[in-house]
Amino acid sequence: MVLETLEPLEQRWRTELTQLDVAVDDVPELTAEPHSEAEQGVDVVEDGRVPLARLIPAGVDRRGVPTRARIVLYRRPLEARAQDGIDLSDLVHDVLVEQVASYLGLDPDVVDGES
């Protein structure tokens, strides 16, 4: 589902998205201790207090190795929020468009091709 949603975005924004990775994890890693913004990510899309996705900016890991920007979608929180398969597909689309828009610094409607 994520790949199907991502494909038209990658076609439209091919050049701009060459340094972006997209991943799916089952659940977000929630810890008691706050991490730095670079480790924790920014622009978390939340449903209440549960993150649905996170944009982690490019940076440098603890070993000094450069990392690429990454959008991580959380499968179980997305599934829990959706009422059915169509709703899940719409939700994945909306969350992914919002995260790509945040990464590009654009309005989600522009990223989605609606304006």
What can you tell me about this protein's structure?
The chain is globular, with a radius of gyration of 14 Å. The protein has a four-stranded mixed sheet. 41% of the residues lie in helices and 25% in strands. It has helices at 2-12, 37-40, 75-81, 85-104, 108-112; strands spanning 20-25, 42-47, 50-56, 59-60, 66-67, 69-74. With 115 residues, the chain is of the alpha+beta class. This is DUF1025 family protein. InterPro entries: Zincin_1 (IPR010428), Zincin_1_sf (IPR038555).
DSSP strand tally:
6
Measured between the Cα atoms of the first and last residue, the distance is 24 Å
Largest sheet: 4 strands, mixed
Strand percentage lies at 25-35%
Radius of gyration: 14 Å
- The number of helical elements comes to 5
Query: Residue share in helices?
Result: 40-55%
Low-confidence stretches: none
Mean pLDDT: 88
Sketch the topology as an H/E string, one letter per element.
HEHEEEEEHHH
Pfam families: Zincin_1
Protein name: DUF1025 family protein
In short:
The protein is α+β, with helices and mostly antiparallel strands and 115 residues long.
Structure characteristics:
4-stranded mixed sheet, 41% helix, 115 residues, globular, alpha+beta, two-stranded antiparallel ribbon
Helices, strands, pairings?
Elements: H1 2-12, E1 20-25, H2 37-40, E2 42-47, E3 50-56, E4 59-60, E5 66-67, E6 69-74, H3 75-81, H4 85-104, H5 108-112
Parallel strand pairs: 1-6
Antiparallel strand pairs: 2-3, 3-6, 4-5
Helix pairs in contact: 1-4
